[in-house]
Automatic annotation (TrEMBL):
<dbReference type="Pfam" id="PF01597">
    <property type="entry name" value="GCV_H"/>
</dbReference>
<comment type="subunit">
    <text>The glycine cleavage system is composed of four proteins: P, T, L and H.</text>
</comment>
<dbReference type="InterPro" id="IPR017453">
    <property type="entry name" value="GCV_H_sub"/>
</dbReference>
<dbReference type="InterPro" id="IPR011053">
    <property type="entry name" value="Single_hybrid_motif"/>
</dbReference>
<feature type="domain" description="Lipoyl-binding">
    <location>
        <begin position="22"/>
        <end position="104"/>
    </location>
</feature>
<comment type="function">
    <text>The glycine cleavage system catalyzes the degradation of glycine. The H protein shuttles the methylamine group of glycine from the P protein to the T protein.</text>
</comment>
<dbReference type="InterPro" id="IPR002930">
    <property type="entry name" value="GCV_H"/>
</dbReference>
<protein>
    <recommendedName>
        <fullName>Glycine cleavage system H protein</fullName>
    </recommendedName>
</protein>
<feature type="modified residue" description="N6-lipoyllysine">
    <location>
        <position position="63"/>
    </location>
</feature>
<comment type="similarity">
    <text>Belongs to the GcvH family.</text>
</comment>
<dbReference type="InterPro" id="IPR000089">
    <property type="entry name" value="Biotin_lipoyl"/>
</dbReference>
<keyword id="KW-0450">Lipoyl</keyword>
<dbReference type="InterPro" id="IPR033753">
    <property type="entry name" value="GCV_H/Fam206"/>
</dbReference>
């Protein structure tokens, strides 16, 4: 399982990268593998507000439907429209082309796990 060290993580298996006040959000490879083949993704609307720890969309796989919890609070400024036609990108490249949305931060994210902490968390769930 890949866990890039430059990202922050949540216990609900989302990742976040912050650059110049904009957070890019996705789900981890652990989550993607656990879900199985992703067939549909519902993303927040551009211009909508997301709140850290609250649902911001859904991922539907052949196994289940799961909420996406935003790791940050702010305004959605971009969504990954390519996922409409190719949601399986989340399975094949969760940290690259499989990102979900970008949000302008209302505040700095807090309570995120480091790559090491996230790895320890997932070792108990495998």
């Amino acid at each position: 399982m890949s866990v890039p060290t430059e990202l922050g993580y949540t216990a609900k298996h989302e990742w976040v990268a912050v650059e110049d006040g904009i957070a890019t959000v996705g789900i981890t490879s652990f989550a993607a593998e656990s879900l199985g083949d992703i067939v549909f993704v519902e993303l927040p609307e551009v211009g909508s507000e997301v709140t850290a720890g609250e649902p911001s969309g859904e991922v539907e796989s052949t196994k289940s439907v799961s909420d996406i919890y935003s790791p940050v609070s702010g305004e959605v400024v971009e969504v990954n429209e390519s996922l409409e036609d190719a949601p399986e990108t989340i399975n094949t490249a969760p940290f690259e082309g499989g990102w979900l949305f970008r949000a302008r931060l209302a505040e700095e994210p807090s309570g995120l796990l480091s790559a090491e902490e996230y790895t320890k968390l997932t070792e108990g769930e495998e």
